[in-house]
Amino acid sequence: MAIRVGIIGAGKMGISHYAIVNAHRDASVVAVCDTSSYVLSVLRKYTGVATYGDHEEMIDRAGLDAILVATPTSTHFACAKYALERNLHLFVEKPLTLSPEQSRALSELATQRKRINQVGFHNRFIGTFQEARRLVRAGALGQVTNLHGSAFGQVVVKEQSSTWRSKKSEGGGCLHDYACHVVDLMNFVSGPPIRVGGARMQSIFSKDVEDAVYAILAYPDGMSGVLETNWSDETFRKMSTTLTAYGTKGKIVADRQELKLYLRAGCGFERYEEGWNTRYITDLQKPVSFYLRGEEYSAQIDAFVEAIQSGNMDHENSFASACEADRVLDLIVRANQADG
Amino acid sequence: MMKLDRILFGDNQFFGVNHMSEEKARQQMMKFKDTAAIIEVLDIAYDMGIRTFMCTTHDRMREVCDHIRADPTRYKAFIFHPCMPYAHKYANSVTEVGALETIKRYSAGSVVGTLLRGAVGAITRDIYDLMKLLVDGEMKSFASLNTPVILVQNVVTDLLLGMKLHGVFAEFHKYIRERYGAEAGFITMNVPALLDALEAVGIENPIVCANINKINFRMCGGLEVYERTIRERRFRPIAMSVFASGAIPPEEALDYVCRQRKIESIVFGASSRRNIEQTRDLIVKLDAKYAGAAWR
User: Is the CB of B32 inside 8 Å of chain A's CB atoms?
Assistant: First the structure.
């Protein structure tokens, strides 16, 4: 029987998830909750889905197996907690919450209730980044000395803006919107840092939030990291995330489209030769059964459904792993404050 | 039934879209900073007999349209296949100002914003009416130009497909015919599923544009299912991404597509005379090889 999914938050991400979940052979969206009566009325009229203005009511009444949360981050904790307490499986958009303590509490609750708990860090489902992680962990670069992660895009390119993304209290800002992706991706490839040495959170156009985040990270074994994100860069058509790992045997540069691996003389690895090697997403990405806007968005939902079906709690992007991202974000905030 | 041109010229190269390399995309964006550079390439293709331009309703397309409109003698045979909407425009706007404001911002002649301000709720609550307003908004740039086929971009087609809002397909198909005397087309990454949906709402023999390439890049359902679907089902396929952004050598890539005789058209983008010519010549050669069909 199809997994019955309820969506909280029918904005851009919620609607995108709606289509992907609904196209899945083993899942369907049966209820949607949002604060916009306009969006709810349109959905109800044309899809026949049950709609709610209150998430607790939806969770109590809609007969759901799983909840997908795509609301402003400040509301994630309350939605997720309520759903877990009613034993629903849970997919929450990134970042998990705005506080490491809340994220940890949710992670513990999910483990205790044995519910699948996944966060929408979709970069982990991109073939180029998966290969970068595999190569780093297999030692293709020798000892990794530095990891550089960046993300650029044009979310805020002028002064006015009036959505939750422009309000710090709701979880807006480049740190929780952009930098969190990069932090998680760096964690994915190398494991989390132990310290944040210094950080700057800078406003460019926004009044209440930062538009750029820069940080220096310290890892075990002396590895260092640099994080650089700016969502006010209109030279990028859409969000562009790049990861560069420097090692004693070579270097990897990976983005959404391609993976470039440079190996020093005598350091050929598996199929990769000395000098530059390039592999493209066309070769590295596993196919998905439904495509909407990038394989990774479908692949993460496929993984979620599969985990629910198999009961496998050891799945990608668990709350526990997202807690590590939240912890690093918190360290960045503190480092920024300490630097004045 | 109107025949589609065998070779259609695409526009990804003009707007920094490249599925394989962000660096290449950026270089192309710089190269085509001025609309004059775009027109120069369009002229090269047009003079080679590639007269259909399949283009996104990008903001910059307005200037291209103005240029074509200004010289009807030179561009007598020029055909547009507009693909709408340019989704980033809407997505960025929804993030910035919300859904309702976005609708007001982009609907035709700001009808909603001015004349019918009081009726915004009623109009926009009927998504078929809303679709019509947005289509008219997107089509404004193409006034008096030849647009025999008007397509829905894949992100919207596939969103509607996933949400099972299949009625919109039927309404779009009907509206495009009635209002613009044109045939609707649907771009998708999910051909088999889309054909089921279109069939269910009574659209016969639809124009469907999709990735068709020998390495199974973004062909949901898989290579074999696609090949069988093209062979056996009744629709008019336009093949795009045949080179999978350069992952397949040209001749090999085109051979795979030309061999499947039911594929009606091939859309490709290129920036240089050499590449345009090479692609055209290869298609002509392969068509002759597989069917004796002449260049049309």
Answer: no
DSSP conformational letter for A194? S
Cβ-Cβ pairs closer than 8 A, A with B, add up to 112
The 10 Å Cβ neighbour count of residue A290 is 24
The owner of tokens 């050669």 is B285
pLDDT score of B292: 60
Residue range A213-220: mean pLDDT, rounded: 97
DSSP code, position A285? P
CB contact under 8 A, A287 and B220: yes
- Walk across the sheet containing A240-247 and list its strands: A195-202, A212-218, A224-230, A144-152, A240-247, A250-255, A258-263, A275-280
Chain B residues lying within 8 Å of A16, measured CB to CB: 159
What integer is the mean pLDDT of B189-210? 98
Other C-beta atoms within 10 Å of B286: how many?
A: 19
Asked if B275 has any chain A CB less than 8 Å from its own CB, the reply is no
Beta-carbon contacts of A11 under 8 Å, excluding residues fewer than 6 positions away, are A34, A70, A71, B94
Identify the pLDDT of residue A337: 95
pLDDT confidence tier of residue B107, bands split at 50, 70 and 90 = low
**B216 in A contact zone (CB under 8 Å):** yes
Contact state of B15 with A23 under an 8 Å Cβ cutoff: no
Q: What is the pLDDT of residue B246?
A: 84
Q: pLDDT at position B115, please? A: 44
Give the pLDDT of residue B121: 56
What average pLDDT does this structure show over B208-218? 96
In DSSP terms, B266 is beta-bridged to B7, B239
Partner residue opposite A18 with nearest CB, options B95, B163, B193: B163
Q: Mark yes or no for CB contact A287/B244 under 8 Å.
A: no
Contacts of A255 in chain B (CB under 8 A): 22
Report the pLDDT averaged over residues A91-110.
97
Tell me, what's the pLDDT at B295? 42
- Which segments of chain A are extended strands (E)? 3-8, 27-33, 50-52, 66-69, 89-92, 117-119, 144-152, 195-202, 212-218, 224-230, 240-247, 250-255, 258-263, 275-280
The answer, yes or no, to whether residue B120 has pLDDT greater than 90, is no
φ, ψ of residue B262 to 5 degrees: the values are: -80, -10
A291 → closest Cβ in B15, B218, B244:
B218
**Percentage above 70 pLDDT, chain A:** 99
Interatomic CA distance for residues A326 and B81, integer angstroms:
47
